[in-house]
Specification:
517 residues, 60s Ribosomal Protein L30, Chain: A, mainly alpha, 3 domains, 4 strands, globular, 2-methylcitrate dehydratase PrpD, 4-stranded mixed beta sheet
Length: 517
């Protein structure tokens, strides 16, 4: 005979608690395969690897990078954990790394994958699958916290922790339970770099390395039975609550397997914050006009340079201005300075790692021109920035009216906030058409009354249709510009076809110390 329980009455058997965010993410990350990843996403990750290797090479030619190697050893070492830390420090030292929606995802994920390729016998396909898996974990966790104080950027150490742990767990094919413990241990102790220290010293590179080391130590503990908190993300006293004014926990698991955050990657042509690159593109173009008018650019013949930028560009300049000290400016502060980068491009037509060396930073002519650079907020550029996928738009769409509880957004938009949110529409189902639209308009006014202007809605290399078409060429030029061998680039471009020994060999050649510039 069949009996029916009255509504609201249970059988008395304990029910399984719902899976935590970490458990859901871990189950997916453990199961996903190379064959599950779309070809375009794999191509983006391949370019990410090449771009990251170029960033490491650029630092190896810089005094800060040489000091890192002298202190901690070369990029590839017998101990993969130490290798990963050195790679992370080198990749982040000049702010020449890649960004995604959301975060600097290469610092942990790509560099740990490189360091562990030999130990874990990763062929090209396994290396790419490891990078994509790490991207997805790091970007999703970072995106869930993005409605928080601006400008943590590379100091968002939880992005490095998540990416490094995910890459290590994926490379060793850890079981789901080990994934949960490893992520919990990695994210449960959060290093918080001090802004003052970051912009006045070389702390930024060490904070990246420290986060990677902490994540790998957590994974080692998980492999030997140490427990990590399964609800480290969504708990009322967990990561999201600690870091974000408006936590967005649903982003961690939404669209796993078809909404690939790797598709949102942006690749940098210049060192420095992505918030500055549209202005850099404009200044690069204006250099030719200036040369035609002045010949060698003399700062005394320039009345002023006006950079119209989005909220992100404007606030970045305001935040770093107090730490700029002319020829005595630290390299980390210079990578965040609109004025220094724009002045260098106007004078020389280029801005690369060599322009962040002590001798270049000591050039009084560059700083004389940089002092004439004025950054003004352009609301239209800010609105276009917010309408794109990255760095804020998709989080604002996901948050909806919850974004009205984000103080930075309300201060920026005032009474227009509800209307701006409504105009953004709903969240994106996939990131196949992802965009980043951090634009700028730069006007150069000469003392003789002549002027010229250039504008960009988005900079070269930022997520969007042009970058989806050209990212291979963009990162290829970047790799070659840092002294990377052309035949090594050709091998990296066919990474999917390489076996484990070939992967180890090509990575070793890609990271051979370049000659002095």
């Amino acid at each position: 005979m069949t009996t029916t329980r009255p509504a609201g009455v249970t059988s008395g058997e304990p029910s399984e608690p719902p899976a935590s965010l970490t458990e859901q993410l871990a189950a997916w990350a453990h199961a996903v395969t190379y064959g599950d990843i779309p070809a375009a996403t794999l191509a983006a990750a391949r370019s990410q690897l090449i771009s990251n290797l170029a960033a490491v090479r650029a630092s190896l030619r810089h005094p800060a990078g040489r000091a890192i190697v002298a202190a901690y050893g070369p990029p590839l070492q017998a101990d993969p954990a130490r290798s990963a830390c050195v790679l992370a420090a080198l990749a982040s030292a000049l702010d020449f790394d890649e960004v995604a929606y959301a975060g600097h995802v290469s610092t942990g994920g790509v560099n740990v994958a490189i360091a562990h390729a030999g130990l874990d016998r990763l062929d090209g396909r396994a290396l790419l699958a490891t990078i994509v898996t790490a991207n997805e974990c790091a970007a999703r966790i970072t995106a869930a916290t993005i409605l928080s104080p601006f400008f943590r950027g590379q100091t968002n150490t939880h992005c490095h922790l998540a990416g490094a742990a995910a890459a290590r767990l994926r490379a060793r094919d850890a079981a789901p339970g080990e994934w949960v413990a490893g992520l919990g241990l990695a994210l449960g102790t959060l290093p918080v770099p001090l802004h003052h220290a970051v912009v006045t010293s070389d702390v930024k590179a060490l904070s990246a390395a420290a986060a990677v080391r902490m994540a790998l130590d957590g994974c080692d503990g998980a492999a030997h039975g140490l427990a990590g908190p399964a609800t480290v993300l969504e708990h009322p006293e967990g990561l999201l609550a600690a870091l974000s004014a408006v936590p967005l926990p649903e982003i961690v698991t939404t669209g796993l397997g078809h909404r690939w955050h790797t598709d949102t990657l942006t690749y940098k042509r210049f060192p420095g914050s992505a918030y500055l690159h549209a202005a850099f593109d404009c200044a690069e173009r204006l250099h030719e006009w200036l040369q035609g008018r002045l010949g060698a650019v003399d700062p005394s013949r320039v009345r002023r340079v006006v950079v119209h930028g989005s909220l992100l560009t404007w606030q970045m300049e305001r935040k770093v201005a107090r730490d700029l000290d002319g020829p005595r400016t630290n390299v980390s502060a210079a990578t965040l300075s609109v004025g220094y980068g724009v002045a260098t491009l106007l004078m020389t037509g280029a801005f690369g790692p060599e322009d962040l060396t002590p001798s270049a930073l000591a050039d009084p002519e560059r700083w004389a021109l940089a002092e004439k650079v004025v950054v003004e907020h352009d609301m239209d550029l800010s609105i276009r920035m917010a309408q794109a996928t990255s760095p804020l738009g998709e989080s604002l769409r996901r948050a909806g009216d919850r974004a009205l509880d984000w103080p930075e957004f309300v201060r920026w938009t005032g009474d227009a906030a509800p209307g701006l949110l409504a105009a953004l529409g709903g969240p994106e189902e996939t990131f196949e058409q992802a965009t980043m639209a951090i634009g700028a308009r730069v006007t150069v006014e000469l003392a003789d009354g002549a002027s010229a202007a250039e504008s960009r809605d988005a900079f070269t290399g930022s997520a969007g249709p042009a970058t989806r078409r050209d990212h291979g060429a963009i990162v290829g030029r970047k790799f070659l510009s840092t002294g990377g061998p052309r035949d090594v680039l050709a091998e990296l471009e066919r990474l999917d076809a390489l076996g484990p020994d070939q992967v180890v060999a090509v990575l070793a050649r890609a990271l051979e110390e370049p000659p002095e510039p």
